[in-house]
From TrEMBL:
Keyword Transmembrane helix: yes
Major site of localization recorded for this protein: endoplasmic reticulum
Superkingdom of this protein's organism: Eukaryota
Protein name (database record): BCL2 interacting protein 1
GO MF terms held by the record: SNAP receptor activity
UniProt cross-references to Pfam families, sorted A to Z: Sec20 (PF03908)
Matching InterPro entries: Sec20, Sec20_C
CDD domains, sorted: SNARE_SEC20
Any coiled-coil regions, as ranges: 37-87
Keywords: Coiled coil, Endoplasmic reticulum, ER-Golgi transport, Membrane, Transmembrane, Transmembrane helix, Transport
Annotated family: Belongs to the SEC20 family.
Residue ranges of the TM segments: 169-186
Taxonomic lineage from the root: Eukaryota, Metazoa, Chordata, Craniata, Vertebrata
Ranges where the Sec20 C-terminal domain occurs: 100-190
């Protein structure tokens, strides 16, 4: 029975060391991760799984230590369990740091997306302003063109009004000359002695 417990203790210790190394490697991968958020989240999940396995093995080792017959072996194993728990606490802090890093990265990516949307909206607004300015300039040019046409029309109307006045005056003078001529002819024919 004691030999079986020793084997179980050695296996637990080996697995604890194995999980410890795997957690260290995953934490280093998280530090080195420059990829997308999904890769960082996947690494974070793996770290959590390894921590669960590590906790389970430490609990098994603690249970084996409590079942030891010799008090000296029991104390040595309990001391090992305490050492593993302390190391796990330091790694839990690293896991927390990795989780915080993941959260911060996610927040920064969200901010980056929002800023990108704002820039795009600003570009669209700028394009709309440019198009509006172009339309206003075109309308202004058309107004200037119409203004020139209206000025020309005003000059022509003024000229025609003067021409009409001149024509009326000429017609009046021509009519007066005609009447004077008719009167002269009538006078010479009717009153030749005058």
């Amino acid at each position: 029975m004691a030999a079986l417990q020793d084997v179980h203790v050695r296996i637990c210790n080996q697995e604890i060391v194995k999980f410890d190394l795997e957690v260290k490697a995953l934490i280093q991968d998280i530090r080195d991760c420059a990829g997308p958020l999904s890769a960082l989240t996947e690494l974070n999940t793996k770290v959590k799984e390894k921590f669960q396995q590590l906790r389970h093995r430490i609990q098994e080792l603690e249970q084996s230590a409590k079942e030891q017959d010799k008090e000296s072996e029991k104390q040595i194993l309990l001391q090992e369990v305490e050492n593993h728990k302390k190391q796990m606490l330091r790694k839990t802090a690293k896991e927390s740091l990795a989780q915080t890093s993941s959260t911060i990265t996610e927040s920064l990516m969200g901010i980056s997306r929002m800023m990108s949307q704002q820039v795009q909206q600003s570009e669209e607004a700028m394009q709309t302003l440019v198009n509006s300015s172009r339309t206003i300039l075109d309308a202004n040019e058309e107004f200037k063109s119409m203004s020139g046409t209206i000025q020309l029309g005003r000059k022509l109307i003024t000229k025609y009004n003067r021409r009409e006045l001149t024509d009326k005056l000429l017609i009046f003078l021509a009519l007066a000359l005609f009447l004077a001529t008719v009167l002269y002819i009538v006078k010479k024919r009717l009153f030749p002695f005058l």
